[in-house]
Amino acid sequence: MAVTVEKEKIIQAVDSRDKELRELALKIHANPELAFKEFKAAEWLTAYLEKEGFEIERGVADLETAFIATWEGEPGGPTIGILAEYDALPGLGHACGHNIIGTSAVGAAIALKDAFPNLKGKIKVIGTPAEEDGGGKILMCDKGIFDDLDAAMMTHPKEKTIVLRGGLACIGATFKFHGKAAHAASAPENGISALDAMLNSFAAINSLREYFTDDVRVHGIITNGGDAPNVVPAYCEAEFIIRAKTSKTLVAVKEKVYNAVKGSSMAVGATCEIEEGLLYAERNNNLALAAIHTENLEAMGVEVFEAQKQGGVGSSDFGNVGQIVPAIHPYIHVGDARTHTPEFTEATKSEAGMIGLNNAAKSMAMTTYDLCTDESALKRVKNEFVEWKKSQ
């Protein structure tokens, strides 16, 4: 499939802004900010969009670093959301490439406006903070931020270009074990060990693994193991993430884990308080939308790989968006390193990373153009989503 004359305009529009987009992505990369603290990145992204004629709403969904930037060509077309992420990882900086995600979203929207100022449609760049830790999109879903969209998309950097890759449902849980302090040598009989309750809980969870399906993942760390070796610990704490293929199956897995923890605590006379986090839904990739996006990538000469058949997926708050609107979460090649590593931090500022940024902006702009100009394509996307909703 060759690039059409219309899409060549989009390619040229992105290329004309390549220098600016690189500078923006590298500035965000050099100033990594953690969840809900992305003040610089949010300001740089919105300032660029505002300068280019987008209407800016800052602090949406009661989140200081969330934003919506809107541009409408001709009225009467669909409303398409291009999602931006821009938070970094503790100690690693942009080892997940959110500097590229945020900048490519901005680049796609501005290029589309440049190429087709009379496009029939409304484009929203939606800035979503705290993907790495905090579930910003989940909080924004709860506030109805995505409800008026006809479709949504974003592009994530990766070692391979993949359009269809899943994501597990997951939930975080903090287990707070309460016992009774005592001198560990002279009067241990007066104590109740919160540490034993916690260690027994780890063992009990491990004993469940044989009976979980292959998609289930349960992993945790000890965040408080007591204060001194000669004191029976009165308080200990552990953090876990529990994952499963769907939100529905996650409920049963979660209950098994919680029962194992409660029983382990009771066995030594301790109690456990469970503090549950946000529910991250599984990813619902819209296949019709994915097919359009794949065609655009391949027309640009970008090789698209299939996702591996089993495993190889994590979880993202983008899954919650896909429960509300037709959505895709493709990946773009930026080098050979794996995410969440120091090597990937380097990749997201490399020449390969900047080429990936350029390709992501082009492909999302082209896909958005298709949705705004091809009524049959938009109808296929929306009909698939309606049928999926009926099946839930």
From TrEMBL:
**Ranges in coiled-coil conformation:** none
Q: Which SUPFAM superfamilies match?
A: Bacterial exopeptidase dimerisation domain, Zn-dependent exopeptidases
Entries under InterPro entries matching the protein = Amidohydrolase, Bact_exopeptidase_dim_dom, Peptidase_M20, Peptidase_M20/M20A_hydrolases, Peptidase_M20_dimer, Xaa-Arg_dipeptidase
Any idea which GO molecular function terms this record carries?
A: dipeptidase activity; para-aminobenzoyl-glutamate hydrolase activity
Which GO BP terms, alphabetically?
A: folic acid catabolic process
**UniProt-listed CDD domains:** M20_Acy1L2 (cd03887)
Quote the Pfam families the UniProt record gives. M20_dimer (PF07687), Peptidase_M20 (PF01546)
Task: Report the residue ranges that make up the Peptidase M20 dimerisation domain in this protein.
Answer: 171-262
Give the highest taxon in the source lineage. Bacteria
Q: Name one GO cellular component term.
A: cytoplasm
Task: Fetch the NCBIfam families from UniProt.
Answer: amidohydrolases
Family to which this protein belongs? Belongs to the peptidase M20A family.
Q: What is this protein called?
A: Peptidase M20 domain-containing protein 2
Tell me the organism.
Answer: Ornithinibacillus sp. 4-3
Q: What is the lineage of its organism?
A: Bacteria, Bacillati, Bacillota, Bacilli, Bacillales
